[in-house]
From TrEMBL:
Domain of life assignment: Bacteria
GO MF annotation list: methyltransferase activity
Chain ranges of the Methyltransferase domain: 39-132
Keyword Ligase found: no
Pfam families hit by this protein: Methyltransf_25
SUPFAM superfamilies: S-adenosyl-L-methionine-dependent methyltransferases
GO biological process: methylation
Protein name, per record: Class I SAM-dependent methyltransferase
Alphabetical keyword list: Methyltransferase, S-adenosyl-L-methionine, Transferase
Length: 214
């Protein structure tokens, strides 16, 4: 927790704008559910939270960093918006069963080892309403940060090269088989694999996006 707390306290990772994939998904779901409720795991400084609150979504977020949540709450208050923000770990969600239509994980779950991801996804399944959706973005195992890391165990890597995640304690990088295992409680309806290359055709980034339903 201390690592992310320090990052946010230093004014880093304070993203202002929502991610395009989340904007598209939320707007699509709102077409058929005007009373959409959503929870973001690892909501950070609240860029997605503020967007959803502005769109009338009944939104909640959980993050381990109190500094990030303070920043998110300040933005919400300034804009006269409301969200249920909780300082805690996504392996222990303090919401009742069947509370949300949507759970969002924008590269938050991959900050913990596989065992914690499994618990967090079980908790996410619990708090989702029947037919509810989970959207997750995870780094993929083709990412050069994973391939070049000095420590790897069961998909979790530490000790990255200076070019990647030098201030992060560790990250999980998912294979296609990992996605099937981790989301086995859900019905996966969409999975995409996105890879970026440099001018020499070397991979610079790789991630997996998952849409699944309870």
């Amino acid at each position: 927790m201390g690592n992310w707390q320090n990052i946010y306290q230093q004014g880093r990772q304070l993203n202002k704008y929502p991610y395009d994939a989340i904007v598209s998904l939320v707007m699509r779901l709102k077409r058929t559910n005007s009373s959409l409720s959503a929870l973001e795991l690892g909501c950070g400084a609240g860029n997605n939270i503020v967007f959803m609150a502005e769109e009338g979504v009944d939104v909640a977020g959980i993050d381990i960093s109190s500094a990030a949540l303070d920043f998110a709450q300040e933005r919400l208050t300034r804009l006269q918006l409301k969200a249920d923000l909780v300082n805690g770990h996504f392996t222990q969600l303090p919401w009742q069963d069947n509370s949300f239509d949507l759970v969002i994980d924008r590269s938050a779950l991959n900050c913990v080892p596989r065992s914690d991801i499994l618990v967090a996804l079980s908790e996410s399944y619990r708090v989702l309403k029947p037919g509810g959706c989970i959207f997750s973005i995870m780094y993929a195992d083709a990412h050069p940060a994973f391939i070049n890391s000095e420590y790897q165990h069961d998909g979790f890597a530490r000790q990255f090269s200076p070019d990647y995640f030098s201030d992060i304690d560790g990250l999980f990088f998912a294979s296609k088989a990992d996605v099937c295992e981790l989301f086995s409680k859900f019905t996966i309806t969409q999975q995409s694999y996105d890879v970026s290359y440099d001018q020499n055709d070397k991979i610079t980034s790789a991630q997996r996006s998952i849409v699944a339903y309870k």
